[in-house]
Amino acid sequence: MLSKDRPSARQRIEAALMHANGFGVLTGFEAARRYGLQNVPPDRSVHLLIPEKHRVNSAKFALVERTIHMPTTRVIDGIPVAATARAVLDGVRRIRELDPVRALLIEAVESGHCTTPELMGELDSGSKRGTALPRAVLKEISSNIKSVPEAIATSVWKRAGLPPAEHNVKIYDLRGNYIAMPDEWCDEVGLAWEVDSFDFHFKKADFAKTLDRNNRYAAAGIVVVQTLPSRLRAEPEAVVAELRSAFRAASCRPRPNVVVVRQNRAA
Question: For 266, which DSSP code?
Answer without folding.
Answer: P
